[in-house]
Every structure is written in C-alpha cells, then in structure tokens.
Amino acid sequence: MRGARPERALDAVVRDALRLDRGVRMLVACSGGPDSIALASLIDRLARERDDCELVLAHVNHGVRASSDQDECVVLSAGARLGRRVAIARPKLARDDEAALREARYAALAELARREGASAVATAHTAEDQTETVLLALFRGTGLAGLAGMPARRALCEGVDLVRPVLHVTHAELATELRRSGLPYAVDPTNAELRYRRNALRPPLDALRAEFPHLDRAVARCAQIVRGELEGRARGTEP
Q1: What is the pLDDT of residues 146-195, one digit of tens each?
Q2: How many other CB atoms are there within 10 angstroms of residue 5's CB atom?
Q3: Which of 65, 180, 236, 239 gives 20 to 30 Å between its CA and that of 188?
Q4: Do the domain assignments include residue 140?
Q5: Contact 58/115 with Cβ under 8 angstroms?
Q6: Cβ 4 vs Cβ 36: under 8 Å
Q7: 219 in a domain, yes or no?
Q8: Residue 12 burial (CB count, 10 A)
Q9: How many structural domains are present in the chain?
C-alpha cells in the first residue's frame, strides 16, 4: 500500500471487504502464522470501531506435526492479548495431503461458525496465495473457472460466508500490521516440505518476483477480471 500512512489504506481495504454490520459475530481463522495473526489484529481494531461487533479467533489444530500444539498456544496467547475468545477444533484426519487438510479445515471452520453463531469466517489468504492457486490450476489444465482463482467471498455453509479480505494484499503489507501489533506468531516448518505442491512453487516464484515485482498484483487482477467475466455470463443466462 502506497502513501505516508499505508496502514490506513489496508484498514480501508479490509473494512470494505468485511462489511461489518452492527451486531455481527465473526470468526477469524487463525493458524498462528504471521499472516493470520496480522489479520486478527487488523480485524480486532476495525471491530472495536463498532462496539457491538463480536470477534472470535478460530484455530484448527490438525495435529499432523510436532509443533501443532505450539501453534495452538500462540493463538491462545494472541487471543488473550487482544481480549478475544479462541474457539478450537481438532478434526480427525484419514490422511495429511493438501486436499485432505484443506477439506478438514473448512469443515471444521464451518462447524465452529455454526457453534458460535457467526455469520462469516475471515481467512488470511493473500495475493501470493492467489498466485499459487491460479498457477496450480493452470498446471492441471484448468478452464476459466480455475484461472479465476479463489473468490473474495463465497458461501462456507448455510448462513455463513467465507471472506478473504486481504486477497489483493501482499505478505509484506500484512507484515507492517504484524509489527505494529507486537503479537506473537509461529512459523510453520512444513512450509519447507516440497511434497506439498504449493511449497514447490515458492522458490521459482520468488526468483520471478525479483524480475517482476508486481507479479502477484498482476495475477490477482487477472483472476478478478476472469471471475467478473464468469459472473457476468452467469447473470446473463438467468431468465
């Protein structure tokens, strides 16, 4: 975010994406990683602008690595520092591949949202995450739907929206909020495991970003254009 006060621009982006109404109850999916902790801090500050907005941190502990309980403790510590409750789910997994973990995580978040009476769950997917999603879809031979990437908002389950308020924001921009918050965070050691396809993409993408510093913004913009085209077509076919 450019300008003398980039945090104000970031606040405006997230405020617009969340559409915080009075009396709303929202979950922030919080893994304990830097992006999710930064988002929790940011939404906490925005929620305090509306006295009757309730925010709960939602942590899904998959238990697939030795540091899983440490991550949970980090989220509990961040919740205590913010004065927010933390809701925890520990789903049982049949396997630990990317697809199974993602499916279990969203199912757990949906269940936590229903249990907490929340109308939305916010996740900290960033512009870099969108780049990875679009490229992985492209490598699978996707059509336009895959090139549209992750939507900024979709239904998670009945009565609950999944919101990605920082989908056009970079890790570096979120890092500014993280430093400002002073909150603890954890680093996921599995981010270095190349058996996960997203991780395998990151070294070549980092090399490309050195030559194309606006790569992630460009991909995010392209995905947004494609999604807009698809949504326009869908509306045009309605009676």
Answers
A1: 999 999 999 999 999 999 999 999 999 999 999 999 999 998 777 767 67
A2: 9
A3: 180
A4: yes
A5: no
A6: no
A7: yes
A8: 12
A9: 1
Range of the domain at 24: 6-236
At 72-129, the pLDDT tens digits run 999 999 999 999 999 999 998 877 788 888 999 999 999 999 999 999 999 999 999 9
Residue 1 lies in a domain: no
How long, in residues, is the chain?
239
Query: Would you say residue 125 lies in a domain?
Result: yes
**β-pairing verdict for 54-60 and 160-163:** unpaired
Cα distances (angstroms) measured from residue 172 to each of 1, 34, 68, 169: 10, 11, 25, 8
What is the reported pTM?
A: 0.90
CATH number for the domain spanning 88: value is 3.40.50.620
Q: Tokens 């070549």 label which residue? A: 204
pLDDT digits (tens, 9 = 90+) for 27-81: 999 999 999 999 999 999 999 887 778 999 999 998 877 788 999 999 999 999 9
Cα separation, 38 vs 237, in Å, equals 40
